[in-house]
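User: Hey, quick favor. My workstation is busy. Could you predict this chain's structure for me?
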Amino acid sequence: MHRIPTSLAWLLALALACGGWGCGGSSSGGGVPPATGSTSGGDTDPTLGSRFWYVGDAFGQPLKTHTAAESTDANDVLTQLNAYRVANGLNALTLDAEATRAAKAHAEDMQGRDYFSHQTPAPENWDPGDRLSLLGASGYSGWGENIARGQQTPTDVMTAWQNSPGHDANMLNPNWTHVGVGVEHDGVNPSGPYWVQVFLRRP
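Assistant: No problem, here it is.
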């Protein structure tokens, strides 16, 4: 199976952040600019997009959940993230079910449709705020997202994010209070695994 070299895999990572207080973070590798709003800005009609974006779709397939191995890796990313924040004098983040759903669905969708971006492909072109709204998330004033692919372990992906200024700024943003982690291990796509962090600011 073809694997992306670890030295190159982190270059495929992208970071995006925005919130009610303004936008932060930056892009790296792919040249994707940060978002400019904290709420949904696009058309979130679920009939436009792939089956990963709503429960009980036309195919009768509900939104998938993490496998046991994916859950282990997601929990490891969370543990390492919070240890990193605390070591830098910041609050640990609370695991958030809505952010986790959005993170897992985006990881799955990127793997399933073979793309790598904060924005889903046409015709929907949804950004992270759109996807959070589509999945019913509410009560937050800002969001951020880190994505990566090709790293084989939680430590690999955390190291890649820490070595990228935009991702590192997202992980060390003092405004975040909650986070969700999504992992997609499906071995059919040789570009994987796919990793997603979704950060939220809640009151």
